[in-house]
TrEMBL record:
One of its GO terms (molecular function) is DNA-binding transcription repressor activity. Residues 17-30 have a biased composition (Basic and acidic residues). It is found in: Cytoplasm. Transmembrane segments: none annotated. The keyword DNA-binding applies. Residues 1-30 are annotated as: Disordered. Its main location: cytoplasm. GO terms for cellular component: cytoplasm; protein-DNA complex. Belongs to the CsoR family. This is Transcriptional regulator. It comes from Streptomyces malaysiense. Residues 1-15 have a biased composition (Low complexity). Keywords: Copper, Cytoplasm, DNA-binding, Metal-binding, Repressor, Transcription, Transcription regulation.
Length: 114
């Protein structure tokens, strides 16, 4: 893990060769964390609503907003994965591109089932 200028920690992995591989979302990591904290606040709000015996429809409205926020985050992350990881694999060619496209296709399938 490395620290960016903004003080956020960038996620990276080492390959078998010891090279550092940076994930597609690393440039937006701070923004993503901020967004996830807002979503976390929405979920805490849901807990509070249930604890306070809030009207069902009002809770469902908040569930819908939270779900939409998570779906939007997932789509952004998927786009970054396609632009970074899949595009990089396409440049390398061979089996790696097939593996990355298969991985992305499965991720899209999981998103569509939710």
């Amino acid at each position: 893990m490395t620290t960016t200028e903004a003080g956020a920690t960038a996620s990276s992995e080492q390959t078998d060769c010891g090279e550092h591989v940076t994930h597609g979302y690393h440039k937006q990591k701070g923004e993503h964390l901020k967004r996830l904290r807002r979503i976390e606040g929405q979920i805490r709000g849901l807990q509070r609503m249930v604890d306070e015996d809030t009207y069902c429809i009002d809770i469902l409205t908040q569930v819908s907003a939270s779900t939409k926020a998570l779906q939007s985050f997932a789509l952004q992350l998927l786009e970054e994965h396609l632009r970074h990881c899949v595009a990089d694999a396409a440049l390398k060619g061979g089996d790696e591109i097939d593996a990355k496209v298969d991985e992305a296709t499965k991720a899209i399938g999981r998103l569509l089932r939710t």
